[in-house]
Amino acid sequence: MSWKACKKPVVLLLALASMAGLALVPSAIAQEIEPPPPSVGTNVPASYFGPFPSQIDRKLVGPVQLLRSGTLNIKKATIEIPLYLGHLADGRNVWYILTDTSDKDNAEALGLNHSAKLHYSNIRRATRSGRIDGEAGLVFDKGAVDFSPVRNVVPGTGANAFPPSVATPGSVGDADYTPFVRIDNAGGHVYNAPVVAFDKTAAEIRACNGKKPNYDLVHDRVVKICPDGNGGGTVTIKLTGIFSFAKPSLYMSTEASDPVVAALDEGTFAPAIGGLPVGRDDSVFSAIERLFVMANGPTGRNNPQRQGLNSALMDKLPPLNLVGGLPTVALDYSPAWDLNLGFWTEEAIQKGYRSRMIDEFQLLGFVVGGHIKGEGGKPFGSTGIVVNCPIV
Question: Which residues are bridge partners to 233 per DSSP?
Answer without folding.
Answer: 227
